[in-house]
Design brief:
- The complex is a heterotrimer.
- Chain A is of the alpha+beta class.
- In chain A, 19% of the residues lie in helices and 20% in strands.
- In chain A, strand 9 and strand 10 form a beta hairpin.
- By secondary structure, chain B is mainly α.
- In chain B, a hairpin with a 2-residue loop joins strand 1 and strand 2.
- By secondary structure, chain C is mainly alpha-helical.
- Helix content of chain C is 68%, strand content 0%.
- Chain C contains 14 helices and no strands.
- Classes of the chains: A alpha+beta, B mainly alpha, C mainly alpha.
- At the A-B interface, helix 1, strand 2, helix 2, strand 6 and strand 7 of A face helix 2, helix 3, strand 1 and helix 6 of B.
Chain lengths: 266, 178, 396
């Protein structure tokens, strides 16, 4: 009995494995002190670890492959743990789309998918034609409306393309939350400032993948540098195949792309 | 001072002007240092965002010490599962190269619930080429085991097909060494 | 999209993004445009008298200035109560973002406050000079400061005062327009929200602001004068009502045009707006805002404008219509601010809003915030009398 070969999208995993073999032996050389914990990790995003970070010459992309998402919710759990996100607020979440034979769409996201999807929906009265899962997170718009409306310059686009929040400047007016067409922002009830997914900027800066990408077991979330021509995201973005963005008509030019997202996804 | 009415008004106007001008100058002093370097924001905020403490490691971080699990996990079907998803974050376990806490190990029904998050066939959105799913308790009935069994009573969680393959090899259902 | 009068939130097909469940801009953000609107409307009355020489408005000219000042004084309060970090509010003055409408608040507010305060000081200068002469101690110091320590009330000085008042009111009008117009643009500039994003938003806000302010002046004038047993100047009320009618026709037309355009063009997410107005907002929009508080006053104002009515009945109807219109503008602000947030950006569902009683943005806080300007007005009346000597006619 043969074990199914990892699909081509598993490049990242096999890459990690290859590096790992060398890493265990040479782990001392790769020891990277990071804020107190010595976290020996292989280089997950090439060109960052151990080098001076050139903030003006970076471009990252995030691709979500809807055809591979199984709704396990590992990403939601990892995200909540990485940032201690308060209950009821979500930096990332997974939606379930159910399509009936009448072409009606039923969408739900119980607790943002934190518990995974353990049971089918029992409240739908017609026969179900199709079901799929759609992970959602910050689109890192190149023309972000949240940045445009922030009155104090607390949210901004960094030179390396990340939309971030200055935790020391935000006054908690919630204008950015109103302005985001994708509802990825929320007001943290503990700190009373605006918060959102940051594509794990603190991890990316150390050459690690975002937490949700790290834990995704099927490769539904992909992250990489567009400056690295061997990265999976580069190959997908530059290759043939259909990639879409959410709410294109809003003119936000997201850096988050969806592969295999149906027309029903908003 | 015996100033005419007009003079007084002029003084008031000038005072407002001076206060406003002074205020604008004062505002410049109060601006944070790194403001405006890259744009209308505090450039130091970028550094601060980069220094948020990291809580998750990678599987490689776990393997560094848990070499026993490495052998099975790397070769099993679950090679893409993050250790930390089931066990908790690296930051809760290790700090400064030392162990600071024990991560929980899931038991019994907790394990079954975790498995079914991915492997439950009830949710018809899971493509067979991405993941194999089963229905409970049908799966247990098909395999002729008690329906109170937990998943890990047959499957080794770190390499779920390991014992299954071994059992099949022993009973001759599968060729040895495959 | 199913639009039922029953709770839309319970529909199987209702889906709200997880972060959309909570309504972030609550009652304080309903109050802020309402308050700046009252300021604007009151200022219009003052401007009509001081700049456009509408003599019939003399009885309420000073009062409307003080009314505007009292409400302008607390305009910051609802915003401070809303902010998650009010202690950082000076960031708005230090680093206002040039692309954000909201950033304009600090400077626009400061300028309008300065303009209104100085207008009041120049309008009342003669009275204050008199009061200075007859008072002692630190009250006299106060009057000296308020009159720039000058006792010059010669013909020359008074002519200069009038010129200054005209000038200040002249620049006060665009300042007032910006003070409330920018609030409209705060909503109008949000493309993510289909009810809010329209170029008409600042226009609708401005016209309904004038409606609320003028109604407030009419109602307050009648109520206060009646309470003190004084007469009511019928010509003054007539002019106010005529101005009110004009602004209300404009406001109502634009409000309805907005809704009609959406439902005619059927573009983008119009189905969400329609679902909102016919669903969760069916009662507060169609029944209250439109039928009870717009159509009825429109009809009544029409009757008041066309037919000759006896002064007593006219004044009484004026007060009632003003009260209804004050409610209309408040409901309109509610429907825009809170109603607009009930639509999820998922374009598939609506959430619910539950006002709290004791929250910092709760019902009790709203009552207190709206009560404070009246206290301020009372204090102001002790320094700056509302009515001039010739309008002090007592009624038996």
């Amino acid at each position: 009995m043969k074990i199914l070969n990892p699909s081509p999208e598993m490049d990242r995993r096999s890459f990690v494995k290859k590096v790992l073999n060398g890493t265990i032996a040479g782990s001392l050389f790769l020891a990277w002190p990071m804020g107190g914990t010595s976290l020996e990790t292989p280089e997950e995003i090439p060109g960052i670890k151990g080098k001076e970070y050139d903030i003006l010459n970076q471009e990252f992309a995030f691709i979500v492959d809807v055809t591979r998402c199984i709704g396990c919710g590992s990403c939601c759990v990892a995200d909540k743990r990485e940032y201690n996100v308060p209950d009821g607020n979500y930096r990332t979440w997974v939606e379930r789309y159910v399509k009936g034979f009448s072409d009606k769409i039923y969408v739900d996201s119980p607790h943002g998918g934190l518990d995974g999807y353990q049971h089918a929906r029992t409240d739908i009265e017609e026969e179900i034609r199709d079901t799929f899962f759609v992970p959602k997170l910050c689109n890192m718009c190149k023309e972000a409306p949240c940045v445009q409306v922030c009155p104090v310059g607390a949210t901004f686009i960094s030179p390396d393309g990340f939309v971030l929040v200055d935790e020391k400047r935000c006054v908690g007016c919630a204008y950015c939350i109103q302005a985001c067409p994708y509802s990825v922002r929320f007001l943290n009830p503990v700190t009373k400032i605006a918060e959102k997914c940051t594509w794990c900027y603190h991890r990316v800066r150390k050459g690690l993948l975002p937490a949700c990408v790290e834990v995704c077991p099927t490769g539904a979330r992909k992250f990489g540098s567009m400056k690295d021509e061997t990265s999976e995201v580069y190959k997908i973005l530059k290759g043939p195949g259909v990639l879409t963005v959410l709410k294109k008509e809003m003119g936000t030019f997201p850096a988050l792309y969806y592969k295999g997202a149906r027309r029903e996804v908003i | 001072m015996d100033l005419s009415y007009r003079m007084r008004l002029l003084i008031v106007l000038l005072t407002i002007g001076v206060l406003a001008g002074g205020g604008l100058l004062f505002k410049q002093l109060l601006l944070p240092d790194s403001f405006g370097v890259y744009g209308h924001y505090r450039a130091d905020a970028i550094k601060e965002a980069a220094l948020v403490p990291i809580r998750h490691g990678t599987n490689a971080s776990c393997f560094k010490c848990h070499s026993n699990e490495v052998k099975f996990h790397k070769k099993g079907r679950h090679q893409t599962i993050s250790c930390e998803f089931c066990h908790g974050t690296y930051a809760d376990h290790v700090a400064d190269g030392k162990k600071i806490g024990t991560l929980p190990v899931k038991k019994e029904k907790e394990i079954t619930t975790l498995c079914l998050r991915c492997h439950n066939t009830e949710i018809k959105a899971r493509h067979e080429e991405v993941i194999k799913t089963v229905a409970m308790p049908d799966h247990l009935k098909d395999q002729n085991v008690k329906i109170t069994h937990n998943c890990n009573q047959c499957h080794y969680v770190h390499a779920p097909l390991r014992y299954i393959i071994r059992a099949k090899q022993i009973t001759g259902l599968m060729e040895a060494g495959s | 999209m199913d639009a039922a009068h029953s709770s839309v939130a319970m529909l199987v097909s209702n889906y709200v993004f997880p972060n959309d469940l909570h309504v972030h801009w609550s009652m304080m953000i309903v109050l802020y445009p309402y308050i700046t609107g009252l300021v604007d409307g009151a200022f219009i009355i003052a401007a009509l008298y001081y700049l456009f020489d509408v003599k019939s408005l003399r009885p309420v000219a000073r009062f409307s200035l003080l009314f505007a000042l009292a409400f302008l004084a607390i305009a910051t309060l609802p915003l401070l109560l809303h902010l998650g970090r009010p202690e950082r509010n000076f960031n708005m003055l230090l680093t206002p973002s040039p692309s954000s409408a909201m950033a304009g608040f600090g400077y626009i507010y400061a300028v309008s406050m300065g303009v209104v305060v100085f207008i009041v000081l120049f309008v009342y200068r003669e009275d204050l000079v008199e009061l200075r002469a007859t008072s002692k101690g630190w009250l006299q110091l106060l009057y000296r400061a308020l009159t720039f320590d000058s006792i010059d009330v010669s013909e020359d000085a008074r002519k200069l005062d009038k010129k200054i008042i005209r000038f200040l009111v002249g620049i006060g009008i665009p300042v007032a327009v910006i003070l409330h117009g920018y609030v409209g643009f705060i909503f109008g500039g949000v493309k993510a929200n289909p009810t809010w994003s329209t170029p008409l938003m600042p226009v609708i806000f401005l016209f309904s602001a004038c409606v609320s302010g003028i109604s407030a002046i009419i109602l307050a004038y009648i109520v206060i004068r009646k309470a003190k047993g004084r007469s009511i100047d019928h010509n003054c009320i007539k002019t106010c009502i005529n101005t009110l009618t004009l602004f209300f026709i404009l406001a109502f037309t634009f409000e309805m045009l907005e809704v009609f355009s959406h439902s005619y063009l059927k573009s983008g997410y119009h189905h969400m707006v329609e679902g909102l107005l016919n669903g969760p907002l069916a009662s507060s929009f169609w029944l209250w805002q439109v039928k009870i508080c717009s159509v009825i006053p429109l009809f009544v104002l029409g009757v008041m404008g066309i037919f000759k009515i006896k002064p007593f009945l006219y004044n009484f109807t004026a007060a009632v219509v003003s009260a209804i219109l004050l409610l209309q503008v408040l409901i309109m602000r509610w429907n825009v601010v809170i109603g607009g947030q009930l639509m999820s950006k998922s374009a598939r569902g609506y959430t619910e809003f539950h006002p709290e009683w004791f929250d910092k943005e709760g019902i009790l806080a709203v009552i207190i915030v709206m009560a404070i300007p009246f206290i301020i007005l009372f204090v102001l009346s002790k320094i700056f009398p509302f009515w001039t000597a010739d309008s002090e006619t007592n009624v038996k």
